[in-house]
Amino acid sequence: MKGYFQNYRRGPNMALFLVLGGILAAAGVLGIFFVQPLAWGVVAVAAGVLLAALPQFAVFACCGFKGDAFFYRRLGVPRRIPARDIGAAVLCIFDEYRQWKGFQPATFAGKNGPVTLPALVLLRRGDEGIEDELDLCDTRTAARAVFGKDYIVSAPLDFDLLRELKNSAFAGKFYISEYIYELYKPGFEEVLGESERVVVYDRIPKAVKRRLKK
Hints:
Helix content: 25-40%
Oligomer: single chain
Distance between the termini: 50 Å
Mean pLDDT: 90
Structural class: alpha+beta
Strand order of the largest sheet: 11-10-5-12-13
Shape: elongated
Largest sheet: 5 strands, mixed
Low-confidence stretches: none
Order of helices and strands: EHHHEEEEEEEEEHEHEHHEH
Strand content: 25-35%
């Protein structure tokens, strides 16, 4: 199985938890010598080690296909879902939590400056009603909030993963935000081609579009 990382800024996030865990563990070591009762220092050391180690399972989580099943991690816990049970794929902006700044779009260096990183968001829900709420889903965080109970997993978009999804038993649609589609149009055309399963959506609510057509 080829694995695809579910997170983008893995190095900085790894360092953050290592530093926080190290500080807590160091405080615990000092507590063992200078604080009574001794148990408080031991607890702080153990908590520091756990804080440094456990989040790494989520930071470096991977997803991918193995046979007809899609494997992924939620909160570091391995999970799987048959490809046929994935209802829809939403492709939008990959945003992530940045310390002191909140959720921000992730970017990488392009020839002409920073380029927005796309996200692949998989949902269990695949009925037509999904299109009524897509205008709110310009980022993966927004998509997760809108389709909360139907959310499966999200990851930075890798076109190899997109190709595997298309060639799997997944029978749902690919909903692509207009902004991301225009940025990566050649890649989408190469992998997905012209298909009724590809729907490009924008920020205008579908209900408004219906009224405008009348």
